[in-house]
């Protein structure tokens, strides 16, 4: 019997939450089933968030698994709410996406400045200039269950409520939620939606996890030369990219993530982590690849 693979294409999206229309930090890579090297989509183009949204909605190849390097939700179960003490705190992730998008309706380019500065929401964020909200706890901040699973692997996740520092993903997560709100009901988003078994599927990834599984040593997860990138790709069964010399880490993250998804998608246990109950899936989501 011939078994048809669930996915035929794999995309890695390195996202950005920075202010402005076009972001050099946004890179998109794609590979097909098999062993061919991943390639950058529109390699000489400086993407906007709106263009990535349009590409996902209209230009994805059939049966593509798309990994987005952003947090698809915020911590909830540690405090019983995304935003304790705020009466508008949503009940689940889709309501969270809608709230962020509604408050940021006048923010251009899918940015999330209005949400970050909102008098109730800002109490929960660590912002630039030493402005930690009174409900942002000391230390590393609040984690989702998925972040705890990442830490169990020896990784160093950062709270999605932290908006400060090179490793922060808070701004990317909030801007990404605006995109997810627009995609909801149009493209299946794991684990909030059950995989229909056909068509395109989006999910959250952590590029450091992909790098670790490709054999990149801890502390060197940002690859900035093609020799190191090709060594990591080879560990994932991928042919090398043709370019030589320096490569920006956003491009290497996207390329490596696409190649990693191609092999990780075949591992049944990654789709069924023990802590991912239906309630967790609906409220906090998950990082694909976390145990």
Describe what you observe in this structure.
This protein is of the alpha/beta class. The chain has two domains: 9-72 and 187-271; 93-182, no CATH class. The protein is built from nine helices and eight strands. It has helices at 49-58, 93-103, 113-116, 145-152, 170-183, 207-213, 226-235, 249-264, 278-283; strands at 9-14, 27-32, 39-40, 64-68, 126-127, 131-132, 188-189, 201-204. Strands 3-2-1-4-8-7 form a six-stranded mixed sheet. Strands 5-6 form a two-stranded antiparallel sheet. Strand 2 (27-32) and strand 3 (39-40) form a beta hairpin. Helix 1 packs parallel to helix 5 (170-183), helix 2 packs across helix 5 and helix 7 (226-235) packs parallel to helix 8. It is globular, with a radius of gyration of 18 Å. The mean pLDDT is 94.
Largest sheet: 6 strands, mixed
Let me know the number of strands.
Answer: 8
Mean pLDDT across all amino acids: 94
Low-confidence stretches: none
Q: What share of residues is helical?
A: 25-40%
Task: State the helix count.
Answer: 9
Tell me the count of domains.
Answer: 2
Distance between the termini: 31 Å
The helix/strand order is EEEHEHHEEHHEEHHHH
- Which structural class do you get from the secondary structure elements? alpha/beta
Strand content: 5-15%
Strand order of the largest sheet: 3-2-1-4-8-7
Over all CA atoms, what is the radius of gyration?
18 Å
Q: Features of this protein?
A:
single chain; 291 residues; alpha/beta; 2 domains; 8 strands; 30% helix; globular
List the helices and strands and how they pair.
Blueprint: E1 9-14, E2 27-32, E3 39-40, H1 49-58, E4 64-68, H2 93-103, H3 113-116, E5 126-127, E6 131-132, H4 145-152, H5 170-183, E7 188-189, E8 201-204, H6 207-213, H7 226-235, H8 249-264, H9 278-283
Parallel strand pairs: 1-4, 4-8, 7-8
Antiparallel strand pairs: 1-2, 2-3, 5-6
Helix pairs in contact: 1-5, 2-5, 6-8, 7-8
